[in-house]
Amino acid sequence: MSQGPSPGEERDEGVPYPFTIIGKDAESSTTRMKRDEHGIPVIYDAAMQDASPVQKPIEHTEPDAISVLSHELLSPLTLIKGYAATLLQLSDSITEEQSRQYLQGIQAATDRVIRLLENLRDISRFEIAAPNLVLQPTSLSDMLRKTAFEIQSQTTEHVIRLRLSNQLPKVNVDRLKMEQVLTNLLANAVKYSPKGGDIEVNLRQATSEHDVLGSLGEVPPLRYPCQIVSVVDSGIGIPEAELERIFERFYRVDNRLTRATSGAGLGLHICKIIVEAHGGRIWASNRNPEGCIFSFSIPVS
């Protein structure tokens, strides 16, 4: 039995091990140590290293979509395998705190797989029939506060600011599906904003086109009166020619942020289906000098 590098010694492209690796598997030619996206060293199987981001145009044909979906599943599954292998092989060498970090990594990667599979399930259902809505009178203000709190708790690099009009009437929505829309839009804003960028969430009521002109870009025809939710990020924006296409299934804008960020191009498509099932509209516009505004309307009964 051989002993690996001592704690702090660098190996594999400058990655320091925070602990001693002992055992034959540690020096196997089929395994290697890498850092995950949080900087935690993880044992990976070299046979699964092809799960790196796909560097190809983002506009997918159906075969391309299958390739992207395969990547989106392989990436978190590779992480889960790496975390589990690290825990199994190095259980005697790592601290309780390090074990907790690996377990948190397994949980986060599992959540990512579940979200993707849930999106695929929803897409397959919605292609057969329109969403079956269970409508209930709901305060969008309260729902936004709840969703923003949940997303804020997942990031320390962004600040979510709420600007909500007071005393708005309740609207009839399917609460679970509307929470899915809000979660998708806020999670996207976090994902595509630079570190430290602010995210602003607005809720207003509009009784006519005059109430929204000039503030939300080019607004599609809406049913009035309606309540409008807008999520404003501080990212690099979207090319004007692609503002309408981003709601298509599997479509992703091809820029440096999307190439470096995971995603299958399903979330916004699902948002569009749900919002339109409520009789609303969803659209995107760019904000000067930078950033993007995602807005959707819900008619007030």
Can you walk through the features of this model?
With 301 residues, the chain is an alpha+beta fold. The protein folds into 2 domains: 10-128, Signal transduction histidine kinase, dimerisation/phosphotransfer (DHp) domain (Helix Hairpins), CATH 1.10.287; 135-299, Histidine kinase-like ATPase, C-terminal domain (Heat Shock Protein 90, 2-Layer Sandwich). Helix content is 35%, strand content 19%. It has 6 helices and 11 strands. It has helices spanning 62-89, 96-128, 140-152, 175-191, 256-259, 267-277, and strands at residues 10-11, 15-16, 31-35, 41-45, 135-138, 159-164, 171-174, 198-206, 226-232, 282-286, 292-299. The strands form 4 sheets. Strands 6-8-9-11-10 form a 5-stranded mixed beta sheet. It has a two-stranded antiparallel sheet with strand order 1-2. A two-stranded antiparallel sheet has the order 3-4. Strand 1 and strand 2 (15-16) form a beta hairpin. The termini are far apart. 30% of the residues are buried. The model is unreliable at 1-30 and 46-61 (pLDDT under 50).
In brief:
By secondary structure, this protein is of the alpha+beta class. The chain has helices at about 60-90, 95-130, 140-150, 175-190, 255-260, 265-275, and strands at about 10, 15, 30-35, 40-45, 135-140, 160-165, 170-175, 200-205, 225-230, 280-285, 290-300.
